Amino acid sequence: MPPHSPQPEASAKHTAAGPRGARPLRILTYSSLYPNAAQANHGVFVENRLRHLLASGAVESRVVAPVPWFPLKAAMFGHYAALAQVPAAERRHGIEVSHPRYPVIPKLGMTLAPWLMYAWTRRHVAEILRSGYDFDLIDAHYFYPDGIAAVMLGRAIGKPVTITARGTDINLIPRYPLARRMILWAGRHAAAMIAVCQALKTEMTSIGLDGARIRVLRNGVDLSAFQPSDGAAARSDLGLKSPVLLSVGALIPRKGHDLVIQALPRIPGATLLIAGQGPEEARLRDLAARLELDARARFLGPVPHAELKTIYGAADVLVLASDREGWPNVLLEAMACGTPVAATDIWGNPEVVTEARAGRLIPTRTPEAIAETVRAILADPPARAATRAYAEGFDWQETTDGQIALFNEIMSRTQTR
User: How far apart are CA 396 and CA 14, in angstroms?
Assistant: First the structure.
């Protein structure tokens, strides 16, 4: 989508109340998970939630999206090269976004990351305040290191902080004792916490975070951006014949693309499209070659978010074989395009796929179970209109309303102290 496209339309307008008068509440969105000119798909779910929040008219935001700094020699290679190309500041969809750098120290990076992110962005945040943007609260996304650094900032400048947990920050990182202690510290000092699904809230409470201060606000789907299309025409344009399977996500082990490839021989005549990039690409291509699936497994590379709708429309089934997820947006995006899904029965997935018209859950994370579930959908597919209708119950309005209510609750508490 172009950087200056209009904000999404909201179904209702809101006015923030309180001593601020009629002006919108001002937030500072703080997260390293935010798209940029060099990484258009990076953290797009954070940007989408913010864009719909701003469309309400109740909130204004500036975005601080820290980026790791590497020496120029390191920036010549792979992922580092993309990071080196991230601009210091940009304007996306009418939102001012800055990308202050913070150092990453090999071997000590995970342990020191929260403090380094805080220390190297504190001056930048102070400059934003001096420029006249006196925000009311910091809205951080991802608990570690972002949420911890945001709480440090909030305590330093006297601003309340909310932290949204999104998945790996809770279901993986707390396995490291020091990281877990820092997450618990940040949770105690945050004004409120947000989980994108009930399963994530349950895990947050199990590691010691206060469940009474955790609000579940799911992700939504942009129903205007993702709509049903002529699947036959889309397949023809791509030179495909049914059945077509689609696996979307970073090419990393936890996404399970290898399991979907291994399931492919058990689904007669099916073609698999894999959209994404990452360090596992060579291994996945080798796996497809060893299984003699070169002609049936197509690697599309990174597909711009705005162009995914064409791929969703061409697919008969979206397959998500992850071992960990918070609230996976790809499921709702596919459904909004009328494409049913097969998703592993883990974490937030059962909260997304609750009816047959949405698709089916994969009972065990194996190639055999994936193939059996996909075959069942192909044998008795829901009407694409029914799948779309299911997705229409997951627009962004409920989440936007929940954010506004939570922010106003925090400001009311802050102003009465």
Answer: 14
What domains are defined for the chain?
Answer: 25-220+396-415 (3.40.50.2000), 231-394 (3.40.50.2000)
pTM: 0.86
pLDDT digits 0-9 by tens, 74-102: 555 556 667 788 999 999 999 999 999 99
Q: In this structure, what DSSP letter does residue 143 have?
A: I
DSSP 17-82: -STTTTSPEEEEEE-S---BTTBTTTTHHHHHHHHHHHHTSSEEEEEE--EEE--TTGGGSHHHHH
- Which two three-digit tokens encode residue 160? 């309340």
Q: In what order do the strands lie in the sheet with 271-275?
A: 297-301, 271-275, 244-248, 317-320, 341-344, 359-362
Q: What digits encode the pLDDT tens for the residues 30-45? A: 999 999 988 888 888 8
Q: What is the largest CA-CA distance in the chain?
A: 68
Q: Please list, in sequence order, all residues whose beta carbon lies within 8 angstroms of the beta carbon of residue 236, skipping any fewer than 6 positions away.
A: none
Element (H, E) at 141: strand 137-141
- Buried b / exposed e across 127-143, counting CB within 10 Å, b at 16+? ebeeeeeebbbbbbbbb
Residue 159: what residue type? K
Compute the distance between CA of residue 240 and CA of residue 312 in angstroms, rounded to an integer: 13
Token couple for 75: 């920036």
Nearest to 249 by CA among 316, 299, 198: 299
Closest CA to 307 of 341, 275, 277: 275
